[in-house]
Amino acid sequence: MPKRHVVRLTDDQRSALDHRERGPLTRRERSRVQVLLRADAGETDDEIADGVGVSVGTVANIRRRFATAGLDAALTDKPRPGAAPLLDGKAEAVVIALACSPTPDGAARWSARLLANRLVELEVVESVSEDTVLRVLKKATSSRGRRRVGASRRG
Predict the structure, then answer these.
(1) End of a domain among 51, 75, 99?
(2) What is the number of other CB atoms lying within 10 angstroms of the CB of residue 155?
(3) Does 148 fall in a domain?
(4) 51/29 same-domain check
(5) Is the dihedral of CA 87, 93, 94, 98 positive or negative?
(6) Is residue 57 part of a domain?
(7) Nearest to 112 by CA among 136, 143, 90, 134
(8) Alpha-carbon gap, residue 134 to 92, rounded angstroms
(9) Do 94 and 70 belong to one domain?
(10) By C-alpha distance, which of 128, 96, 89, 122 is closest to 110?
(11) Mean pLDDT of the residues in the chain
(12) Is residue 127 part of a domain?
């Protein structure tokens, strides 16, 4: 059965891929370059997949992206959607500073809920979840004066 998406590299594209292959690449980028070079050399999808260490479906996808959108699309991923971070660096610093500050009256220690409410009161953010506050505190490995860093103390 003839291939639907045949890879035919120009001399410029082939030399650019050869040059790129010699430089520092991630494993994903290196495998995509090798797939395109081998496909241009006339190897089958099974041979390419075995030689490069990817699945046959990956080879077919790289061929398809090259044929439909060009070399750059075959080598790089599209940007993935995702929400912007709720707390920037300054807001994270406020969370850490609050957690290290004296506790409010009537509380033995800062809870995630108290910290989240205080951030809203200080108008650092409009709203924030307790999970977000906990994630920020987990990233900060402050020992608060103890010798050991971490969540648990040994007796």
Answers:
(1) 75
(2) 2
(3) no
(4) yes
(5) positive
(6) yes
(7) 134
(8) 11
(9) no
(10) 96
(11) 86
(12) yes
Query: What total of structural domains would you count in the chain?
Result: 2
- Among the listed ranges 25-34, 37-46, 53-62, 143-152, which one has the minimum average pLDDT value? 143-152
Burial (0-12, 13-18, 19+ Cβ within 10 Å), 52: buried
Residue pLDDT, tens place only, 113-137: 999 999 999 999 999 999 999 999 8
Work out the angle at residue 61's Cα, subtended by the Cα atoms of residues 55 and 66, and round it to the nearest 5 degrees.
135
As a whole number of Å, the end-to-end CA separation of the chain is: 70
> By residue range, what is the domain housing residue 55?
11-75
Rounded distance between C-alpha atoms, residue 98 and residue 125, angstroms: 14
Q: Which of 41, 37, 11, 39 is nearest to 25 (CA)?
A: 37
Q: CA-CA distance, 1 to 45, in Å (whole number)? A: 12
Tokens of 119: 């951030």
Extract the tokens encoding 140: 């900060």
Q: Does the predicted model carry a pTM greater than 0.70?
A: no
Residue 87: band (very low, low, confident or very high) from pLDDT cuts 50, 70, 90 = confident
Residue 147 lies in a domain: no
